[in-house]
Amino acid sequence: xxxxxxxxxxxxxxxxxxxxxxxxxxxxxxxxxxxxxxxxxxxxxxxxxxxxxxxxxxxxxxxxxxxxxxxxxxxxxxxxxxxxxxxxxxxxxxxxxxxxxxxxxxxxxxxxxxxxxxxxxxxxxxxxxxxxxxxxxxxxxxxxxxxxxxxxxxxxxxxxxxxxxxxxxxxxxxxxxxxxxxxxxxxxxxxxxxxxxxxxxxxxxxxxxxxxxxxxxxxxxxxxxxxxxxxxxxxxxxxxxxxxxxxxxxxxxxxxxxxxxxxxxxxxxxxxxxxxxxxxxxxx
Amino acid sequence: xxxxxxxxxxxxxxxxxxxxxxxxxxxxxxxxxxxxxxxxxxxxxxxxxxxxxxxxxxxxxxxxxxxxxxxxxxxxxxxxxxxxxxxxxxxxxxxxxxxxxxxxxxxxxxxxxxxxxxxxxxxxxxxxxxxxxxxxxxxxxxxxxxxxxxxxxxxxxxxxxxxxxxxxxxxxxxxxxxxxxxxxxxxxxxxxxxxxxxxxxxxxxxxxxxxxxxxxxxxxxxxxxxxxxxxxxxxxxxxxxxxxxxxxxxxxxxxxxxxxxxxxxxxxxxxxxxxxxxxxxxxxxxxxxxxxxxxxxxxxxxxxxxxxxxxxxxxxxxxxxxxxxxxxxxxxxxxxxxxxxxxxxxxxxxxxxxxxxxxxxxxxxxxxxxxxxxxxxxxxxxxxxxxxxxxxxxxxxxxxxxxxxxxxxxxxxxxxxxxxxxxxxxxxxxxxxxxxxxxxxxxxxxxxxxxxxxxxxxxxxxxxxxxxxxxxxxxxxxxxxxxxxxxxxxxxxxxxxxxxxxxxxxxxxxxxxxxxxxxxxxxxxxxxxxxxxxxxxxx
Lengths: 284, 539
Fold this sequence. Notes:
The complex is a heterodimer.
Chain A: H1 18-40, H2 72-108, H3 110-124, H4 128-139, H5 143-170, H6 173-180, H7 185-221, H8 233-241, H9 249-276
Helix pairs in contact in A: 1-2, 1-9, 2-3, 2-5, 2-7, 2-9, 3-5, 4-5, 5-7, 7-8, 7-9, 8-9
Chain B: H1 2-7, H2 11-35, H3 38-47, E1 51-56, H4 71-80, E2 85-87, E3 94-96, E4 99-104, E5 110-115, H5 129-137, E6 162-169, E7 172-177, H6 184-187, H7 198-204, E8 218-224, E9 228-233, E10 246-251, H8 255-264, E11 269-270, H9 278-281, E12 287-291, E13 296-302, H10 312-321, H11 324-331, E14 336-337, H12 362-372, E15 378-385, H13 390-403, E16 406-413, H14 415-424, E17 429-434, H15 442-445, H16 466-478, H17 482-499, E18 502-508, E19 511-515, E20 518-519, H18 523-526, E21 537-538
Parallel strand pairs in B: 1-10, 1-11, 15-16, 15-17
Antiparallel strand pairs in B: 2-3, 4-5, 5-7, 6-7, 8-9, 9-10, 11-19, 12-19, 13-17, 13-18, 14-18, 20-21
Helix pairs in contact in B: 10-12, 11-13, 16-17
């Protein structure tokens, strides 16, 4: 009886996914540009030189100049500050409020859970952009109001995920064990719920960061965000819109910056999800 | 479980699909445009009966002429309507419209109009004197079925000065004024004075604004509120049927869309393409550009009722801080002239000597700030409509004012919010314009009158000089002698400059964009915002 030759061992090679690395790298560049903008360009982003208007990209002005002769590269570099401040502040606020609501609802259960989550359902029934526009329209334009609007539009997303995961965690054996040893209330949340919730919320935070960048750009594009004299990518795209056939560089570069930044955060989020989300472990 | 994971669409796949779909979506119109050249599109339009598409910046929810509904609605009314009088924007003379002749009494109070024989409204109803009279009185007579409270535009054609208006017979209308008004004939050329069919007023009542029946060269075939109006050439027009069969006046969401539609041949006429496209379009084989006359004043209204902008020194400091050359180049792309006063260079009595005051002088700006008693930085808010060239203009003004000690906060608003805020009286500085709707100096000067034009941007009724200004404006209206009127309007301009409630920024000379397939385009009057396309033909 001849035995079949053993199959050659299949080497499980750990695949390196380049997209999260590229995404993370580009996003790090954006942060670097925001922090060190004054050292990366010799131009004042608000300096008006009417005689130098609409210059095409050149060595002196790699992204060209706009209506007022302002250097577009300088404005793109400084404009990264606005979108990053708005995005990070919005996500931090929404994470804090939405996460707290979700954990409270999941932990308390019963009527409190029902009331809080129906409230979140109502907020979710409005499209995020529309809700943000409604809030800014009622509060008035401005950076702070734009951040408040974006926070409100993202609270339900954090709340729902935090609640669902909290309910899962509360059914785990270690919670029962902890309770039997006298663990209760806030202590349980701080000691067991939050640490187990953190990976999922990190993944959700990166995903919502992209949404916040998109909403920030949309509000500024519509003139509902920062003061129009402040460099901002959404505003620059808005200004460039009417110039699309005659000076396309004015809107193209900030538009590309928005697109690449959002894509990079999404790719980074994908990578983090693959690493941190329990549901994705072993799926790839 | 693994199977479910394979079936699930990852976010990455979703992103890739989205990007691909967006790309295809963006390319679709380009592919479509590539198939049909502009010439082919224009030829197709002619073959389909001569369809002329006019791109407007907006379209109102109604065509009710007793209300201001934006320029889109005005363009429709100017093409479906006809007043007793027409204004000639080149000569400045009143011309016969539905009235073929008129007489004015020696005291300037009684106007007697003889209507043109055979003129009819679009529904076939004859244009008679009783019909004309009813069109005027419906705006103030609450027993008329078409009456809506607050049809304030009636005052622009002089209704508040009417002692009486009556039909002497079927073809004679007599208007008696309370006080002489040298500009009354031109007032009757305004859209609000264009007669409406009495049958339509009875049939549609207060909804007549969406089913307007007038007596102009085109008849309203379809009106989609907020979007477009489709007009059909009126066979019964007294001046002869327009050459173009169908005129579509359509609102476009932004300047870039208008430009794309113009270059693709989808649009044949517009005033609202971006000025930045003009240098390129001058070399275009398909699109022509004419530069209009300086009919439009651009200004910065200073609210005289507030503590800060109520200071004359602050208003003068603002005036001297602004670099108008930069505004004309940077915001208007060169389509403007340096301003002199409230009147335009084409107006009777225009005084050119005030241009020097509208010149940047940082030393004088600093002196006026020091004299005002306010300590720098002086916080001030600049409000404007967030469309057209206003945002650019606001940014340039902010840079100038910040440079002399102000700290300007920009306040971009939608048009409704802009006028709402102005009406509340809390707007410190507001950017706006005044177009020449009829070629008479009172058309501009009237906004300085504290009784007929209170509030708005400047709240000039709070100034001590308001009675003096009112008296001058009233005298300018009452005076029939042109030479004497010139002297009065010079005094009005001087007083307005002394008070500086309006800081003049530029005279806009707006370009008029049209397809080279068109001939007889009324560029001069069109640059005022009054566009009558009845004489336009396809070349």
